[in-house]
């Protein structure tokens, strides 16, 4: 891993230019303005994150929405399994009959 680099404080001695559709540029500027950023700020943020992770700062797939959904489901299933495992830990499972018996309730 290379030495960390902070884009905000790094000397700016070179330029980067790109061509884009004016309507796309305008839409992007409006989106980022809503976040309190300029288009340049957003690009620099993307570049900083790329440096931080040493790659693309997000998953690129043909269907990112589907990939994000699958990732969310996997995280949810892991959390559910961890919750289930924690209940099985020291005291084991407590079923409804045991709870009712403990508190003297009739079934």
Structural commentary:
By secondary structure, the chain is mainly α. The chain is built from four helices and no strands. The chain has helices at 22-33, 39-53, 64-88, 96-102. The relative contact order is 0.07.
Number of helices: 4
Radius of gyration, in angstroms, nearest whole number: 26 Å
* Strand residue content: under 5%
What does the largest sheet look like? none
Which regions have little confidence, pLDDT < 50, spanning 5+ residues? none
CA-based shape:
elongated
The tally of strands reads 0
Report the average pLDDT across residues.
Answer: 85
**Class by helix and strand content?**
mainly alpha
Number of domains: 2
Helix content: 55-70%
Termini Cα gap:
63 Å
Q: Return the string of H and E elements.
A: HHHH
């Amino acid at each position: 891993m290379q030495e960390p680099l902070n884009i905000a404080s790094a000397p700016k001695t070179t330029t980067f230019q790109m061509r884009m559709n004016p309507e796309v540029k305008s839409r992007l500027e409006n989106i980022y303005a809503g976040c309190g950023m300029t288009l340049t700020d957003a690009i620099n943020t993307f570049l900083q994150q790329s440096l931080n992770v040493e790659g693309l700062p997000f998953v690129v797939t043909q269907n990112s929405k589907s990939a994000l959904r699958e990732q969310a489901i996997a995280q949810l299933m892991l959390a559910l399994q961890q919750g289930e495992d924690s209940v099985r830990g020291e005291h084991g499972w407590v079923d409804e009959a045991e709870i009712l018996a403990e508190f003297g309730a009739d079934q």
